[in-house]
Specification:
alpha+beta, 5-stranded mixed sheet, nucleotide-binding, 17 strands, lipid metabolism
Amino acid sequence: MAADSSWVRIVTAQTPTNIAVIKYWGKRDETLILPVNDSISITLDPSHLCTTTTVAVSPSFDQDRMWLNGKEISLSGGRYQNCLREIRARACEVEDKEKGIKIAKKDWEKLHVHAASYNNFPTAAGLASSAAGFACLVFALAKLMNAKESNSELSAIARQGSGSACRSLFGGFVKWVMGKAENGSDSLAVQLVDDKHWDDLVIIIAVVSSRQKETSSTSGMRESVETSLLLHHRAKEIVPKRIMQMEEAIKDRNFESFSQLTCADSNQFHAVCLDTCPPIFYMNDTSHRIISLVEKWNRAEGTPQVAYTFDAGPNAVLIARNRKAATQLLKKLLFYFPPNSDADLDSFVLGDKSLIKDAG
Ligand code: DP6
């Protein structure tokens, strides 16, 4: 280590969030965060929903500390500690001649890190904030500590922060393979196709409510595992087939099949929540009205124009087959949920801001 203890080494990373089209809901191992089924997601454009994390290391830091959206949070929870421990174990020598910094592999055990993370979207409102957060933290720490692991290997560490985080280490469509190993070494994310493969798709998020959800994903899925028979049937009998069909639909850019599978899987995930004792309600009346709007429109068109999916909250993630469908969708949303009315939405998050202009 450099003799002078005033140096600071800083790394900043940005990671987008991801939205599952085949949902992860249920763990077979709570500590290692191992899921009961495979899942598939689409990673969003980093310019819209993303986390930016800056990590720093200095001999003058006397403990690990972290700030989330400007507020210090406790690192005592096992999830942060697990991620830090796993990356520290893979840390390598760092030499920055310009700054006169040399950190040997063994020095990392004694050094403390500070991390500051910002979400540019509502935290814990069912918009997968923990996914982007842990993926970004793990990625930034890996760069800081010069860990040589691949993104798939890092995904198995991010998974121990929050399951869905493992899928944010890649762009495009990503599969989280549940794996078989008891130590979780093969429970990691792989990229199915990159973001250029199907770039006609336009994602619009209708923010029905930006309030924090009442039941966290972690406790909700724990209760579902304990009480829902449907969850176990889904994991064993339904998801394995759906995963194969979804991979096929993505490979062929088959929107008809993609939207049918996406909507069906979202509805089944919420059915599992209802099948949980006591039942969990993530969607609200506005979410249900959005589903009806899309279902009626798709039926009237003969070919589906839009797929919908809802995570652990009331906000709708709407995937339009192309720009034209996205513009029509926005017009419909603005017509049925007029701004400043009782039925208005909190906001839209768009893949492309110019769509609002097109939609008038
Ligand atoms: C509904 O990844 O937030 O978004 O692993 O306990 O942190 P933990 O849960 P989390 O759950 C996400 C659930 C979901 C579906 C999905 O993203 O696949």
